[in-house]
Write a structure and sequence with these properties.
- Four copies of one chain form a homotetramer.
- By secondary structure, chain A is mainly α.
- Chain A is built from nine helices and no strands.
- In chain A, helix 6 crosses helix 8 (about 145-165).
- The radius of gyration of chain A is 18 Å and the shape is elongated.
- Chain A starts with a helix and ends with a helix.
- The interface of A and B includes residues 105, 141, 148, 153 and 182 of A.
- Chain A binds a DNA duplex through helix 2 and helix 3.
Amino acid sequence: MSNNKRTDILEAALSLFAERGYDGTTVPAIAEQAKVGAGTIYRYFENKEVLVNSLFQECVEQLAGSLLTDAPSAEAPIRERFHHFFVRFSQFANGHDKALAFIDSHVNALFLDEASNKRFNEFLDVLRGMLDEGKRQGIICPSPSDALIAMVYGALVRVFKVIKNGVVEPSSELLQGIEESCWNAIRAH
Amino acid sequence: MSNNKRTDILEAALSLFAERGYDGTTVPAIAEQAKVGAGTIYRYFENKEVLVNSLFQECVEQLAGSLLTDAPSAEAPIRERFHHFFVRFSQFANGHDKALAFIDSHVNALFLDEASNKRFNEFLDVLRGMLDEGKRQGIICPSPSDALIAMVYGALVRVFKVIKNGVVEPSSELLQGIEESCWNAIRAH
Amino acid sequence: MSNNKRTDILEAALSLFAERGYDGTTVPAIAEQAKVGAGTIYRYFENKEVLVNSLFQECVEQLAGSLLTDAPSAEAPIRERFHHFFVRFSQFANGHDKALAFIDSHVNALFLDEASNKRFNEFLDVLRGMLDEGKRQGIICPSPSDALIAMVYGALVRVFKVIKNGVVEPSSELLQGIEESCWNAIRAH
Amino acid sequence: MSNNKRTDILEAALSLFAERGYDGTTVPAIAEQAKVGAGTIYRYFENKEVLVNSLFQECVEQLAGSLLTDAPSAEAPIRERFHHFFVRFSQFANGHDKALAFIDSHVNALFLDEASNKRFNEFLDVLRGMLDEGKRQGIICPSPSDALIAMVYGALVRVFKVIKNGVVEPSSELLQGIEESCWNAIRAH
DNA sequence: CATGAATGAGAATTCATTCAT
DNA sequence: GATGAATGAATTCTCATTCAT
């Protein structure tokens, strides 16, 4: 029993969208997974597109919120800020693997609306802020921040996916190695 | 006029799959884009699933072939081999952006068959070979190759996507910076 | 208004299959005749083939049930048993002419499944039992029962079809004459 | 190699129509079976409907011709005429089982044109003539000829089908038994 | 509020027919 | 004449959405 059908629906949708994609997922399938009637979904979301956008925004919200929790101040050393970012991201990837997979595989989809895209860009801005500050300090390499973000984000999404799939073991050495690799990718040499 | 309808269909499918995904693309839409009748598609491909698998395998083939062209021998220095890989990958990303986007967004899809998955893993093996040799020589950092591959591949796919989208300018400095970043991510420090 | 859409669909299908055959009948045509949406048919039957098999089995069930209703015991005289069979068959042919036409024109079709064929053979077994007993008593002529069944069944299906078509009048003299003819065809002389 | 593509097409169509019915048979399937191109069929027959009507009429022609060959004169004893009919019909059923199955399963089809129906009725007229003469002589029972024809024709089609299917062995005793049964069905008692 | 049966527009696929070679 | 690749209308089937209960 759950105290909230809306949440049940979003969780079911997340699970299915992450696995089969938006277009590969039917509304009745979401209803079944959520253990609600198909019609119930339409009491909480105007239609399938509204549902996917709501879900996307909530997922990005969670990810962004996760990264900001207990974050060092803007005055803290970049390396420390990056470490916090990495730890949080890695926790999120571990605890919310479906959300990360869903965000990643739907991020450029045509059915995402203005608000969804805006929300995702705001999330990227957090990273951008850190990198821009680092470049000002000469600690981060001078490539465009958008390029650096794309690389770090792309690298992390992918590497946590192979971890989730069990291809490699998520030991603390591995995580340290990944953090080092990412840091080396963006720091000035 | 084209000398080959099969090619027209594959190109149309690539374009649409890359943009809207497999499930978001209708067969008549492919037919229209390819300027053939809808029924014609079924003369060349048994069904939509066979079409997407054929396309996937051909794209991976192209990518792998591209990376192998004029590749330095296995005895060449790792840095040189990596450079060649990067240059080829960047050329492919530039000339075949849709193929790269298509591969990337469909690589784990449930409708891909055994052969498609096998073909993609063979492509990854090429990278693995280079990294494993580098680790033996102590040049590449000791994280599992699957993790390093995921990071480099993820970083490159993503960064070339933002380049394609015009977010950043593909200057030679940028490309040098990206290559350096990727190399720094995987080399031993 | 009917209390059961499944029944509406089966009746519509029976009517159309009897008239135009399985392959000559489209699903939307059945839907229209049944006054339901085309999609509704698929809520009740997995596909067109399942529909035709369900219908076939139900029709054979009705025919067999009809023949068994108030049937004389296996100890009753063969002539009496045959009379009962004939009367029941003739009533069925009169009241369920479409069912009889449908069964007859689809009985050997390739799309009928194991269960459908089995059900029809069970129906034939009822006749076979009567004829075999008659042969044991020397009342029925010694040709193989399968041949006698084929003849009687073939003769009756065909003659009731011409009656239904209005080619001949279904007077009681006619029915008596047909019963006599069939009996004469199978009795020992 | 055959000297006549038209014949090849008709034979292929006969074989397929007999097995799967008109609507269940595709024109390309006929072409393949006939070892001609699909387009070739349209050089000999305007369309599929013309093909099936031509075939139907040729088959009925063959059957009627078969029954008339060496037929006793109208003055010959009815029993002798019936014997000849039975022998010829049985030969036809044996040598042209597909033609008989095809005629039987398509005889009332909606796509048969005027000429096809007319041709089939002319065939029935041959039987009718014999039975009417027999009734005049008091040898044949007084049921309407159309009913008697339906019964005899229905019985024979069905019984030769089970013989063809190997359910019963076509011994000369069996054939004699069948002939006797049919004769007993229609003679006056 | 919640449901799930019902719907029909739209998707994948087939096939009778045409026509350039 | 013969072919079979190409076609698009028609067919089977799916699914987002509605609405009576």
